[in-house]
């Protein structure tokens, strides 16, 4: 399986087409092998537009939400960055390709050790991993140019705000369940902060002293002791087997963006407009077949005294012909139609002209001279008047038939 090609397709379809434009983020997403950060056996799903379970009730976020958070963090080459919620290590790996130094905190020791091992294998040496309470941050390494939090807190922890450098950016989901909002907090002064709402999201909870606690009725996870550093893979026996077993039991959480970015809204508006234009174009093509002269636009009514070629599909304010064919007769021939028919089609001319015209019981009658020598064809030149479905009664001699027609607006 060509993961490089799949990775490029992910960047094109899931990121750039949805508005991610930061070149450093795009390049990092093209470079970091996401398949190395999922559980064994799940590599083929690594680039799906969805989160994946990584065990311990945690997920690796969908690529788009990761890219969105990094773009909003506005990372620079010389930045020192704190990530709260190492998880699989994928976001830390991406940030390490952009920023100078990454500090990452994870409360689950098994996940922290797995992430550390991945960093060493891939040669990402500018990432430090700690096991601890992420809601308290990493004060020894502060201040940070950016902080990215990959779990939702009930409110922005004050410790994280205090560890921002002046001009620093904090990206964090805030709220519970379906009410979470992705926030960007910028420190503009020693005690001054500006906050932006980036839209609705769904993340796993941030467990910690300044976040959701272990006693909270919604969350029952245990908070580890802060300050413990991930040592090495030797302290994690059978980590691969345990991780795989947990992954099989835990469904992927519906983590990701709920609200849509302005770019997405514009894209979908253009998409809807394109479909409308395509539908109108298709309708125009169909009308070319169904309108005047089209193979399905007319119907021939057979009566004992002849036949009537009648337009059953027309276009509004367009010319139409109705052809009446009389059989040979030594008596004058009579064609009748509802008076209401003239509200739908106005008669512009008759060729050859009628001998006489009369009105009787709400019907209009046209009298044509007898011709015992052979059939006679009469052409009514019509002009459509009213759009919509109409119905008319048409008669030759004493026989009457009902006929429906539809005029497109």
How is this structure best described in words?
The chain is α+β, with helices and mostly antiparallel strands and 409 residues long. Helices cover 25% and strands 34% of the residues. It contains nine helices and 22 strands. The strands form four sheets. The protein has a nine-stranded mixed beta sheet with strand order 10-5-4-3-6-7-8-9-11. The longest helix is centred in the last third of the chain and has 29 residues, at 262-290. Residues 217-255 have low confidence and may be disordered. Its main location: cytoplasm. InterPro entries: PCMT, SAM-dependent_MTases_sf. The chain crosses the membrane at residues 273-291. Catalyzes the methyl esterification of L-isoaspartyl residues in peptides and proteins that result from spontaneous decomposition of normal L-aspartyl and L-asparaginyl residues. It plays a role in the repair and/or degradation of damaged proteins. One of its GO terms (biological process) is protein repair.
- C-alpha Rg (nearest Å): 38 Å
Helicity, as a percent range: 25-40%
Distance between the termini: 54 Å
Strand order, sheet with most strands: 10-5-4-3-6-7-8-9-11
Coarse shape: rod-shaped
- Average of per-residue pLDDT values: 83
List the total number of helices.
Answer: 9
Structural class: alpha+beta
- What's the total number of strands? 22
Write the layout of secondary structure elements.
Elements: H1 3-15, H2 23-31, E1 52-55, E2 58-60, H3 63-73, E3 80-84, H4 90-96, E4 101-106, H5 109-122, E5 127-131, E6 144-149, H6 158-162, E7 164-174, E8 181-189, E9 192-202, E10 228-229, H7 239-249, E11 256-257, H8 262-290, E12 298-303, E13 306-311, E14 313-315, E15 319-326, E16 333-338, H9 341-344, E17 345-351, E18 356-360, E19 363-368, E20 376-384, E21 388-396, E22 399-408
Parallel strand pairs: 3-4, 3-6, 4-5, 6-7, 14-22
Antiparallel strand pairs: 1-2, 5-10, 7-8, 8-9, 9-11, 12-13, 13-15, 15-20, 16-19, 16-21, 17-20, 18-19, 21-22
């Amino acid at each position: 399986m060509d993961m490089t090609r799949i990775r490029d397709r992910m960047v094109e379809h899931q990121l750039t087409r949805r508005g991610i434009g930061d070149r450093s983020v795009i390049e990092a997403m093209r470079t970091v092998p996401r398949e190395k950060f999922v559980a064994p056996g799940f590599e083929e799903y690594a680039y799906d537009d969805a989160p994946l379970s990584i065990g311990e009730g945690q997920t690796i976020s969908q690529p788009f939400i990761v890219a969105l958070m990094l773009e909003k963090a506005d990372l620079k080459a010389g930045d020192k960055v704190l990530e709260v919620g190492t998880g699989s290590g994928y976001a830390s790996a991406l940030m390490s390709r952009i920023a100078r130094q990454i500090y990452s905190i994870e409360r689950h020791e098994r996940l922290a050790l797995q992430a550390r091992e991945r960093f060493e294998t891939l040669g990402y040496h500018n990432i430090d991993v700690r096991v601890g309470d992420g809601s308290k941050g990493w004060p020894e390494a502060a201040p940070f140019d950016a902080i990215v939090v990959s779990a939702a807190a009930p409110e922005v922890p004050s410790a994280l705000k205090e560890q921002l450098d002046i001009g620093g950016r904090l990206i964090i989901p805030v709220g519970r369940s379906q009410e979470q909002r992705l926030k960007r907090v910028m420190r503009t002064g020693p005690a001054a902060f500006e906050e932006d709402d980036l839209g609705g999201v769904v993340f796993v909870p941030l467990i910690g002293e300044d976040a959701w606690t272990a006693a909270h009725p919604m969350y029952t996870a245990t908070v580890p002791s802060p300050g413990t550093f991930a040592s090495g893979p030797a302290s994690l026996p059978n980590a691969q087997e345990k991780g795989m077993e947990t992954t099989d039991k835990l469904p992927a959480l519906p983590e990701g963006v709920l609200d849509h970015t302005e770019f997405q809204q514009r894209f979908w508006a253009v998409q809807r407009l394109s479909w409308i234009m395509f539908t109108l174009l298709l309708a125009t093509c169909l009308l070319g077949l169904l309108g005047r002269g089209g193979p399905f636009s007319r119907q021939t009514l057979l009566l004992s005294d002849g036949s009537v070629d009648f337009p059953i599909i027309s276009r509004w304010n367009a010319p139409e012909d109705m052809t009446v064919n009389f059989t040979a007769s030594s008596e004058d021939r009579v064609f009748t139609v509802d008076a209401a028919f003239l509200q739908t089609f106005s008669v512009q001319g008759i060729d050859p002209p009628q001998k006489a015209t009369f009105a009787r019981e709400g019907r209009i009658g046209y009298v044509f001279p007898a011709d015992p020598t052979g059939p006679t064809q009469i052409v009514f030149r019509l002009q459509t008047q009213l759009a919509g479905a109409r119905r008319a009664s048409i008669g030759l001699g004493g026989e009457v038939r009902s006929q429906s027609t539809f005029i497109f607006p």
